[in-house]
Amino acid sequence: MKFHRTVAMTAMFAALCAAPLDFTCSAALAADAPTAEAKAGWYSQIVDGDFVATHAILPKPEGVQIIDSRPSTRKYDPGHIPTALNIPDSQFDKHVDKLPPEKGTLLIFYCDGLECMLSHNSAFKAEKLGYTNVRVYAAGYPDWVKAGRMAAVSIPFIKKQMDEGAPMTLIDSRPKERKYDKGHIPTALSIPDLQFDKFVDRLPADKGSPLYFYCEGLGCKLSSDSAAKAVKLGYTQVRVVSDGYPAWVQMYGAGPTSENARAEAKPAIQAGKESGTITVASFERVFKDAPASIYLIDVREPQEFAAGTFKGAVNLPINTLEKRIDELPTGKPIVFFCGAGGRSGEAHDMVQLYKPELKTYFLNADIKWTAEGSYTIVEKN
Predict the structure, then answer these.
(1) Residue from 234, 236, 192, 183 nearest 213 by CA
(2) What three-state secondary structure class fits 15?
(3) What do you get for the CA distance between the two ends of the chain, in Å?
(4) What phi, psi does 318 have (nearest 5°)?
(5) 372 and 305 in one domain?
(6) Do residues 133 and 249 both lie within one domain?
(7) Is residue 273 part of a domain?
(8) Residue limits of the Rhodanese domain (predicted)?
(9) Which residue has the higher pLDDT, 38 or 203?
């Protein structure tokens, strides 16, 4: 009898909610749907991923706020549900002003899965503050990713990737002339969503390359539309930057305009697998397209240097480096090199020991030069 009553109630709610779902109906249906068995200490109103997915869309819907209760840097920044606000449970009281003022707003808390209590703890706190429409997505972010749903990253995460020279392709999905040309996140490519098919060749050939799409913030759906198109093309590491360009401006200031970007453009340095290295491909791009953006230091002996080296390099033999370390230039990354990677690696390690504030790399490669300046270079594994 209990089973039949449950089926009847579900049918009744489905009939009542045949029109576009309002928050009350959708919450009731979600609560009646099969969920994981409740654990001690859980909040009572549990929803599933399908329920959350109806609200985790761009542009962000009115009257609902998804909240990620996990730590910021380790969890939220590198991956979260789109449109989610980050209020770590450990800092809930400190950031309570971030909650919407309307106490009837649908709040959906989540954290790191069925064993994580942070979202439940935060939900109870919100209820005590007078919020009347609180839910918990108990399966949380691991379930979201497992289901193959689109994930988002934060603006600080993008900045960190840039600072570390991590491989990534950042794409601005906004109109080029009206938006991108007037200011964009540094290093971003312009692929307007309305012209995605026309410029799809700008995407990397490697379908495993990390792609990050952004547009004009939580009120803009261009980035999520473009991200979905990239997934259909077979790209496997696609994320949206939900907060978009407005958040970049708020945190780091206005980005370059197209005119400035053309004048200042320089290839990004890509770090190699071994700590401190620059990949050969990255080095050759920089050396060819923007040699003035780096300092090249040859740490071989003077006679080796005289027999052939990279154009524009200066000679600072490794056995003199420690005494002359204060002479090293600042303001640009330094790339040390030799003929096989041993001495250049030692130079990098020495500088990081004595002057870690300097940004240094080294080429771990077999290099041979001719007197005319041509060279061959083979990266070591």
Answers:
(1) 192
(2) helix
(3) 68
(4) -60, -35
(5) yes
(6) no
(7) no
(8) 60-153, 164-257, 290-378
(9) 203
CA 342, CA 251: separation in Å to the nearest integer?
40
pLDDT for the residue numbered 373:
76
Answer yes or no: do 51 and 158 share one domain.
no
Q: Which structure tokens are listed for 301? A: 């002996």
Same domain, 176 and 246: yes
| Cβ contacts of 333 within 8 Å, gap of 6 or more | 269, 293, 294, 295, 359, 360, 361
Paired sense of beta strands 375-379 and 365-369, if any: antiparallel
Q: How many domains does the chain have?
A: 3
φ, ψ at 35 (rounded to 5°): -135, 170
**For residue 103, is pLDDT > 80?**
yes
Task: State whether residue 305 is helix, strand or coil.
Answer: helix
Full residue range of the structural domain in which residue 331 is found: 280-379
130 in the same domain as 14: yes
Write down the residue that tokens 């005494």 correspond to: 323
- Domain edge (last residue) among 120, 146, 172: 146
Q: Is 142 part of a structural domain of the chain?
A: yes
Q: Is residue 65 part of a domain?
A: yes
In a domain, 352, yes or no: yes
State yes or no: cis peptide before 59, omega within 30 of 0. Answer: yes
Q: What is the DSSP string of 314-374?
A: EE--HHHHTTTGGGS--SS-EEEE-SSSHHHHHHHHHHHHH-TTS-EEE--EEEEE-TTS-
Q: Tens of pLDDT along 25-42?
A: 333 334 433 345 778 899
Q: Is 333 exposed, middle or buried (0-12, 13-18, 19+ CB in 10 A)?
A: middle
263: its two tokens: 């004048």
Q: What would the pLDDT profile of 317-371 be if each residue is shown by its tens digit?
A: 999 999 999 989 888 899 999 999 999 999 999 999 999 999 999 999 999 998 7
